[in-house]
Amino acid sequence: MSIFEQVFTIVLGHEGGFDTTPADPGNWTGGAVGHGVLKGTAWGISAASYPDRDIAGLSQADAASIYRLDYWNRVEGDALPPPLALLVFDAAVNNGVGHAIRWLQSAVCVNPDGQIGPATRAAIVSAAARSGGAVICAEFQAQRLAFMASLPTWRIFGLGWARRLCQLPYQSMNMKVD
User: Fold this and answer.
1) Greatest Cα pair distance in the chain
2) Which CATH number fits domain 74-178: 2.60.40.1840, 1.20.141.10, 3.40.50.300, 2.40.50.140?
3) What is the pTM of this model?
4) How far apart are CA 90 and CA 75, in angstroms?
5) DSSP three-state, residue 45
6) In which band, very low, low, confident or very high, does the pLDDT at 129 lie, cut at 50, 70 and 90?
7) Where are the domains of the chain?
8) What is the CA radius of gyration of the chain?
9) Is 42 strand, coil or helix?
10) Digit-coded pLDDT (tens) for 46-99
């Protein structure tokens, strides 16, 4: 199983199936509670991000295609060490590609401009070589947790998000690298 297939399976386990919780801004086509149409989220694909999609009708194969093109490729998941690839990919899906890339850049001490370029790639390789990647992963998770805890929806969804963030490092240790 490829690294993408493994992280996709893990992220689907966190994202779950179809959901139309009205308190979740992602479930609304307008990106805010009460704005647009309540179309929900399926496989982590939200109405806010994909307002023109038939969210309820998305298949797992549809989700895999969207995840690869819009999230995995944009964070250059194939070039990341597998544990870090899981964390960055999960953040891209759950919090947005821009946030995920900026947290990654901050974790490797590169100007967080939201674009992966040569400086970011070199810093990832260098930092991973120094610490085996553990320091990058911990810093990435810390930045992500601080962001998520600052969201107004933390009171509603925070415990579930915290569980997810705590499970991811352990799940990354069980990934099989060919």
Assistant:
1) 48
2) 1.20.141.10
3) 0.91
4) 10
5) strand
6) confident
7) 1-58, 74-178
8) 16
9) strand
10) 999 999 999 999 999 999 999 999 999 999 999 999 999 999 999 999 999 999
CA pair distance 11, 90, nearest whole angstrom: 6
Pick from 68, 73, 54: nearest CA to 8 = 68
Helix 154-173, helix 82-95: angle, nearest 10 = 160
Q: Which two tokens stand for residue 65?
A: 């295609």
- Assign 28 to helix, strand or coil: strand
Task: Give the pair of three-digit tokens for residue 131.
Answer: 């610490």
pLDDT one-digit tens code per residue, 35-47:
999 999 999 899 9
In a 13 Å sphere around the CA of 9, the CA atoms on its Cβ side amount to 11
Q: What is the DSSP letter of 72?
A: I
- Residue 178 CA to residue 33 CA, distance in Å, equals 43
- Taking phi first (over 0 means left), then psi (-120 to 50 degrees means alpha), and beta for anything else, what does residue 176 get? beta
Is 75 in contact with 140 (CB distance < 8 Å)? no
